[in-house]
Amino acid sequence: MEFTKAKAMEFPRRIIAGHASLESVPGMCREFQLDGPVLVITGPTTRKVAGQVVCDMLVDAAYDVDSIDIQGASLDTVEEVKARTRELDAEFLVGVGGGSKIDVAKLAAFQSGCPFISVPTSAAHDGISSPRASIKDGDDNMSFTASVPMGVVADTSILIKSPWRLLAAGCADVIANITAV
């Protein structure tokens, strides 16, 4: 009897990482031929860090942009984002922020059948490009199958400004994930 073992992995089509890479978000959207309305999922703090800049750049690139600030990753929040996606008739989503913003964006995109771009503001979230979303259901944390982002834009000039504990956690995630693959 022959032993075989295979593991399928899905990856983003493009990852751009480096200082000042945030400005590449509109070009990445054009590269993926995403031309319709876009919903940007961010939060009050992450809007100040990068969310508003992403919205402004997309508007300057002639996109019809709407945005929503979320507080956490709950099933209710995912439903709110999906409803806003339908209202806007969004062609794609952009998640800008830490873990909760990216997880809500990826699950809402998956359940809405539209692609999304991941723009992390913290390296401490190992789900930046994974096909899983960690979402609260009441008091329980649940893991859901979700979309892998079409693309990831990781601006290191933003990531380096994260609180120390998030940078340290991000380094630990990198080490853990390298050994896991």
How can the largest sheet be summarized?
6 strands, parallel
* Radius of gyration over all CA atoms, rounded: 16 Å
Tell me the number of structural domains: 1
Strand content: 15-25%
The N- and C-terminal alpha carbons lie at a distance of 26 Å
Numbering strands along the chain, what is their spatial order in the largest sheet? 1-8-5-4-2-3
The chain-level structural class is alpha/beta
CATH topology type: Rossmann fold
Shape: globular
CATH level-1 class: Alpha Beta
The SSE string, one letter per element, is: EHEHEHEHEEEEHH
Question: What does this entry look like structurally?
Answer:
- With 181 residues, this protein is α/β, with parallel strands linked by helices.
- It has one domain: Rossmann fold (3-Layer(aba) Sandwich).
- The strands form two sheets. The protein has a six-stranded parallel sheet with strand order 1-8-5-4-2-3, with helices on both faces. It has a two-stranded antiparallel ribbon with strand order 6-7.
- The longest helix has 17 residues.
- The protein is globular, with a radius of gyration of 16 Å.
Layout: helices, strands, pairs:
Elements lengths: L13 E5 L6 H7 L6 E5 L1 H17 L4 E5 L5 H14 L3 E6 L1 H14 L3 E5 L11 E6 L2 E6 L5 E5 H4 L4 H17 L1
Parallel strand pairs: 1-8, 2-3, 2-4, 4-5, 5-8
Antiparallel strand pairs: 6-7
Helix pairs in contact: 3-4
